[in-house]
Amino acid sequence: MATAGQQFLLHEDASGYGLFKVVQREVIAQDIAVMSAQVDTFNTFKSMVELVGFHRFTTAEEALLQIQELREGRVSSVLEDFLELNLTRSKKKGGAKDAYSLGVWDPELGKNLNEKFPCNTGASVKELLRGCLLHFPDFVKAKVTDAATNLLKAQCGLAHCYSRDQMRLDPNRQDKPIMNAIAILDNLDKNINTFAMRVREWYAWHFPELAKVVADNILYARTARVVRIKEHFDCENPDNIAKLTEACGGSSEVAQEVILALKVSMGQELVEMDMTNIDNFARQVVELARMRTTLQEYLKKKMDVVAPNLSALLGETIGARLISHAGSLTSLAKYPASTVQILGAEKALFRALKTKGNTPKYGLLFHSSFIGRAQQKNKGRTSRYLANKCSLASRIDCFSETSTKAFGEHLKQQCEERLAFLSEGTKPRKNVDVMAQAIKAAKAEIAESGVVTDTKTTTSDGEKSGEKKKSKKRSAEEVSSTPAAVGEATEEPAKKKKKKNKEEGDVTLETKTAAVDASPTVEAAEKKKKKKKEKAA
Prior knowledge:
Elements: E1 6-12, E2 16-22, H1 32-39, H2 42-45, E3 49-56, H3 60-71, H4 77-86, E4 100-103, H5 107-113, E5 119-120, H6 123-139, H7 147-168, H8 175-203, H9 210-213, H10 217-227, H11 238-247, H12 252-263, H13 272-306, H14 308-314, H15 316-326, H16 329-334, H17 337-341, H18 346-355, H19 369-373, H20 379-399, H21 406-423, H22 431-449, H23 455-481, H24 484-536
Parallel strand pairs: 1-4, 4-5
Antiparallel strand pairs: 1-2, 2-3
Helix pairs in contact: 1-6, 3-7, 8-10, 8-13, 8-15, 10-11, 10-13, 11-12, 13-14, 13-15, 14-15, 14-20, 14-21, 20-21, 21-22
């Protein structure tokens, strides 16, 4: 039973909760360095504290539930019952808060526990809790068989369960495939360009005219695989012409140009062994291009699910690059528009700050079509405006409950109108009107798709609206329930003011009329005085 001035320590372990009582209370007042030396050895530490209570977790699910509550700083019913059982107060000192003190490690947990149990989280308490963590297996030997091994297994099992649970609830789990896909796309582009350059250089010794007729790298590789050695290619065979037309992208005109160039080619002869190697490289180029196409389609579908508005505004490639550079969609949504504008140009920014030069106007947004179509003098304005819209689109994608493209499409229309305004001077629509149209379009799209929002949000919105209605009703009832005398009392001063105004008006009228009436008499008196002066003269 807790008495006045006792110090208890709450230790959270993977196997359960442990409650310790500080036997030597003067230890708390010691220096931290002295206490640390005493805590390191079990023989010294066991004379300082003693185990007074231990609640063991029965299942792994219970342990996972308890660690989730502790991570959020909440007090579970299991922990509350355990503390109430072991920290029962006497009836005489039931209301005294200084009867005992409970030491905890987490300040947030101590804040929530402080409602029922007085807690502290000082440096000496944390040092004692470190000793409890260090020597906990030795304290529970009598209650747990093979304590050291079993506690280690419990820690390992709980760590695996907690990690799996965190991965399942990871908000960035949908962003990682996008980041990997855009990284592979960039690597594929480099590999395709490298292999295609080697194929062109190698095959140009045999057929140099083909590079001028077929400019695309993928079509060049396909054509080289069809033609192979030019002396062995039969230009009159319709099957060969059909294959060549298909390799040239379905263009019969390009195929005829290749045949004409084939007949007058000035390239050197090629051995079959060399052609085999060239064919292998050309096949790699074609396969890599096919892989890139499928990966691009996958990225588009993934971006339509994860960030539909950002994809509608910028396109899936630039949007994926922004997410990859920021680290996640959540990080991108937390960035201000000024950071999004220069994202990808950090080296140029710091170089400009170091040399006190001009800072960059755009980073990854330079690849957007809006920046490319803008005039040179308006590129900075367009980049700043586009970054603002990208920030809005990323926040809508990150924090909205339903997936819709309506906002991204309307934001794209605003960017188009801004370009027209900067180049031609046409006045764009107001942002309020555009967002109102976007909200209507989003609601219509959600209604068509039949997406149901979470019940928690609907109930919270319903409760809020209900509270607003109740407050309105209460205010109306209070207004209607006020007695008539109050209304009369409130109206009387107004009437008095009106009377005062009337009285003031009457007084002013009387003074005006009196002044008007008095004016002729004054003029007559002045005339008489003038006549008298003239007679006297």
